[in-house]
Specification:
By secondary structure, the protein is an alpha/beta fold. It has 8 helices and 16 strands. Strand 1, helix 1 and strand 2 form a beta-alpha-beta unit.
C-alpha cells in the first residue's frame, strides 16, 4: 500500500532541546492532521550539530521525558528523529530513532564518525556497532546517518538485511561552491541515486539547513525511487517541508527487473573481506 513521507528540512537551535522538542511536536502534530504516514527530521534535530562539550547536557536516555513526548505524539503518524543518546555505560552516540504507534521502535547509532577537516565527532561520541533493517507498519526500513552513506558497505548491509526504504538523516555542510550548488550536494545526489538503483530501494534523505558556528548547511532533502528518479526535492538552504508518495510495489518490480541483490555472492564478499582484514592486521 502506498504511503506518504514528509521531509522536515529544518534549522535546529543549537543546544536548546526544549525549543527543538516543541518544534518537533508541532510538526509531528501537523503531519498527523494532514494524513501523512511518516515524517523525517535531520540528524541531531533535537539539539543541533556543533554541541561539542554540551554533548552530555543535550544527551537523552531512552526513558527520558523528551523521547516519551515524541513517542506519544507519534501515534497516528510515524517519525524519524535525530538526537544524542546516552547509553547505560555513559557513552554518547549520535542516534536516529524511529517512533511509531506511541513508542520508540528502533534506534540506529551512527557507525562512521568523521574526524577530519572540519569534523571532530570522535572526540565526543562513541561509534555505533551494528546496522539493522527493521519492520515497521509501512514496510522494512533501514536507518543511516550522514557519514554512514559515504561508506558503501553501510547501505549494502541495510539492503541485504531487508530494507525496502533507506532513510538517511544528515548534517551536511555546504562545501566547494558551484554555480547554484555545492560539491557536497552534487556528491550526495550521485551517491544516493546510485544506492537507490543498485539496491532497488527508495532512499529518503533529510538534511538540515541554516547556519551554526559559521557553518552553512545546504538542505536539498529528497526522495529517490528504485529507478533513480527524484520524486521530490526540497530547495537548497530553505526551511521547508516537502512530501512524496512511496509504493513498495515499486521495489518489487525493480528487484525483479534488475536482481542485483539476489545475484550478490555474499559468501565471496565475506570471504574476501575477511582475508583483506586479516592480511591488514597480521603482524
Amino acid at each position: 500500500m502506498p504511503f506518504t513521507v514528509r521531509l522536515a528540512q529544518i534549522s535546529p537551535v543549537l543546544g536548546d532541546v526544549p525549543a527543538n522538542l516543541d518544534r518537533h511536536l508541532e510538526l509531528i502534530g501537523r503531519a498527523q492532521a494532514d494524513g501523512v504516514d511518516l515524517i523525517v527530521f535531520p540528524e541531531m534535530s533535537l539539539c543541533g550539530y556543533h554541541v561539542r562539550d554540551l554533548a552530555s547536557e543535550v544527551a537523552l536516555r531512552r526513558d527520558s521525558s523528551e523521547l516519551g513526548a515524541i513517542a506519544a505524539a507519534a501515534d497516528g503518524v510515524s517519525a524519524v528523529v535525530g538526537f544524542v543518546e546516552e547509553l547505560p555505560g555513559y557513552e554518547l552516540c549520535v542516534a536516529a530513532g524511529y517512533f511509531e504507534a506511541g513508542g520508540l521502535r528502533h534506534v540506529h547509532h551512527k557507525v562512521y564518525l568523521p574526524t577530519y577537516g572540519m569534523f571532530d565527532e570522535q572526540r565526543y561520541f562513541a561509534n555505533g556497532s551494528r546496522i539493522r533493517a527493521f519492520e515497521s507498519r509501512l514496510g522494512p526500513i533501514g536507518l543511516l546517518i550522514c557519514e554512514d552513506v559515504w561508506h558503501p558497505s553501510a547501505p549494502m548491509i541495510a539492503a541485504h538485511d531487508g530494507a525496502h526504504v533507506l532513510v538517511v538523516i544528515a548534517n551536511s555542510p555546504a562545501r566547494g561552491p558551484r554555480e547554484g550548488s555545492w560539491d557536497t550536494e552534487q556528491a550526495y545526489a550521485g551517491m544516493l541515486r546510485t544506492y537507490a538503483e543498485l539496491f532497488g530501494c527508495f532512499v529518503v534523505f533529510v538534511n538540515r539547513v541554516g547556519y551554526e558556528d559559521g557553518v552553512h548547511f545546504w538542505g536539498g532533502s529528497r526522495v529517490i525511487s528504485p529507478d533513480g528518479d527524484v520524486l521530490t526535492e526540497a530547495p537548497l538552504t530553505e526551511e521547508v517541508c516537502v512530501e512524496a508518495a512511496l509504493d513498495l510495489e515499486h521495489v518489487r518490480r525493480a528487484r525483479i527487473a534488475t536482481p542485483l541483490l539476489a545475484d550478490e555472492n555474499l559468501d565471496l564478499t565475506i570471504r574476501e573481506l575477511t582475508r583483506i582484514r586479516d592480511e591488514r592486521t597480521r603482524p
